[in-house]
Amino acid sequence: MKPTWSPDSWRRSEARHQPVWPDEADLDRARKSLRDLPPLVFAGEARTLTDQLAAVSRGEAFLLQAGDCAESFDSSADSIRDRLRVILQMAIVLTYSGGLPVVKVGRIAGQFAKPRSSPTETRDDTELPSFLGHLVNDVGFSEAERQPDPERLITAYNRAASTLNLLRAFTQGGYADLSQVSSWNREFVATSPAGQRYSQMAEDIDRALQFMTACGISSVNTPQLHHVDFFTSHEALVLDYEEALTRQDSLTGNWYDCSAHMLWVGERTRQLDGAHVEFLRGVENPLGVKIGPTATIDQVVGLCEALNPDRIPGRLTLITRMGADAVAERLPPLLRRVTDAEHPVVWVTDPMHGNTYTSESGRKTRHFDQVLAEISGFFDAHHRAGTIAGGVHVELTGDDVTECLGGSDELVDGDLEQRYETMCDPRLNGRQSVDLAFRVSELLRG
Ligand code: PEP
Ligand code: CO
What's the half-sphere exposure (Cβ side, CA atoms, 13 Å) at 89? Predict the structure, then answer.
């Protein structure tokens, strides 16, 4: 029998990748302020997402989880809208061409903390703390900017609240109305081959909508045509922040981490006896776990037992990120053993984090072909195992950046310097994202 869980029971276990805050009293003040603030999301919304993910686990829907690697406190409203727009574009492609309802979950409104491979970064002869995300410190390379500052926990809450407010307005207030599908195609996407394919699809959808309007079905009388469900998620990394936003639901008495609808534990912090697993096992939100190529079968089954002992469908999503070269070998044994253990997990592929490398010009990048190859290997493994390929988890931006190679306009190493803007990992731009959605929808159709 495990000891009882409480929002702070994680403090009895080793918590990796936590910031070293310079002043405990400042941290305590920030934690207290957070505890007094209203929840960002509501328990009922998290339960709705669990239900939708249960449908994904049965093959009745597909999960699109997407957004920035590290969100910035300085994101403009336009940049947030453009990120949402690309996700909506991808979702409509997957729904229309792939033929399944799409559950939309952003890496957004809280994706502010990053685990790093090294706690410090050295440039020339200067060694400073690594950038750990805007929740902790700043990206600039000076002592002042890299100093962890607990005041940022409050700023993160406020940024998450205003981002969420914007997302709720866009997704409920008419921007996401199905009649707007063609207007989502921004200039820099529309001129690409993927954008043209998208325009063609949007025309078909418009015609179908005209037909439905003539039959008496329109967004005026059908809410499903007028708004979309959109959920938030982030890596639950900095546990002081997550604990302070964890609340008891007045309806059920259960605990929810009200910082986002869905939380995941990263590849670097998923130790079975670690603080992150201890914290997450006690909150009722739908959970994700990143599973990299070194994960053993026993660890993965152990994580299923720890995080979903009651085998609730939709509760647990395993986000595999093996790398294009390893997926065919590493994934099938996991599919077999988790199925044998009768765990109803949602299987999702993250084709980004196992395919990152440094290009000749010295930029951290990913190649579109390898991203696609991992997705394809993921579908193939599920097809062979008779399990459900439930979704994709990608890092993208709506901005016209040049961070990942390849795609329909064939970005090459020399292009990377043009607009390489990420604070952490390289992201797909709008064109590459829409292109990817078409490729995934082909795999979905089989
Ligand atoms: C991430 O999703 O940004 C990340 C750090 O992933 P992982 O834990 O899979 O390395
Ligand atoms: Co990343």
Answer: 33
Encode pLDDT of 225-267 as tens digits.
999 999 999 999 999 999 999 999 999 999 999 999 999 999 9
pTM (two decimals):
0.98
- Contact predicate 374/352, CB 8 Å: no
- Quick: pLDDT tens for 211-226: 999 999 999 899 999 9
Give the number of whichever ligand sits closest to the CA of residue 107: 1
What separation in Å is there between the alpha carbon of 219 and the centre of ligand 1? Answer: 38
How many angstroms does the Cα of residue 353 sit away from the middle of ligand 1? 6
Which string of b and e fits 433-442 if b means at least 16 CB within 10 Å? bbbbbbbbbe
What residues have CB less than 8 Å from 436, skipping those under 6 apart? 90, 368, 371, 372, 375, 392, 394, 428
CATH assignment, 9-176+227-445: 3.20.20.70
Amino acid (1-letter code) at residue 253: G
**Among candidates 360, 435, 342, which has minimal Cα distance to 396?**
435
User: Which residues are 356's β-sheet partners?
Assistant: none
Domain ranges of the chain: 9-176+227-445
In short, whether 266's Cβ falls inside 6 Å of ligand 1 is yes
Taking CA atoms only, the protein residue closest to ligand 1 atom 10 is 267
Q: Are 301 and 337 in contact (CB under 8 A)?
A: yes
Nearest to 259 by CA among 440, 74, 42, 97: 42
